[in-house]
Amino acid sequence: MNVPAPVAQFLRAPTPAAWVDAARQRVPELLLDHANCEKKAAATALSLMFRYPEQTGMAARMSRLAREELRHFEQVSKLLQQREVAVRRVPASGYAGSLRAAIRSDEPGRLVDTLIVCALIEARSCERFALLVPVLPDDVAALYSGLLHSEQRHFEVYLGLARQLQSQLDERIDRLAQLEASLVGRRDPVFAFHSGVPAATTE
């Protein structure tokens, strides 16, 4: 399955083949972390609604997005049940934390950067769904094929909101996108949906 062109153009580097191979071999771990990611995505959208109540247009979009992320969580949870994968706490990779650490503390920079980081995470999710569909078992591939376009739409929502707040964003986007690319390309002690290449994996 092809990565949507807007997503491929937004990301500064593709997911390494070694990560895709690790995901193919570690489907239960992939699904467990994916379910966790969907909960976090819904929580992020709700957090933005609470933190910026004056952004009424953004709040309406975040409300819809949070509901959709929770539906995705329910879909992944159902698949975990069907596969009889026991739900457990999963370790966090450094990916999201490293991106959050780069967010500016002053406003409106904090909100703009948060929206860009969310756009990057959604774009990476979309890209990885596209890469995984051809190599995963049919039940997981069918789910990911269905979620791919939602992730692209979420990426576009976040990026569009950022551009509404600040018209000149290319330099800031490039800086954060370069950081994101470095995170997915590095060796990572943890395997996760948004991790780098697992440390025990070789190219």
Explain what this protein looks like in three dimensions:
With 203 residues, this protein is mainly α. It contains eight helices and two strands, in the order H-H-H-H-H-H-H-H-E-E. It has a two-stranded parallel ribbon. Helix 4 packs antiparallel against helix 7 and helix 6 packs across helix 8. The longest helix has 28 residues. The radius of gyration is 16 Å and the shape is globular. The mean pLDDT is 95.
Give a quick account of the main beta sheet: strands, pairing sense, barrel closure. 2 strands, parallel
Give the terminus-to-terminus CA distance. Answer: 22 Å
Q: Please give the count of helices.
A: 8
How big a fraction of the residues is strand? under 5%
Which percent bin holds the helix content? 55-70%
Overall 3D shape: globular
Question: How many beta-strand runs?
Answer: 2
Write down the secondary-structure element order: HHHHHHHHEE
Output the structural class: mainly alpha
User: If you compute it from the alpha carbons, what radius of gyration comes out, rounded to the nearest whole angstrom?
Assistant: 16 Å
Q: Give the oligomeric state.
A: single chain
Quick check: average pLDDT? 95
Uncertain stretches of 5 or more adjacent residues: none
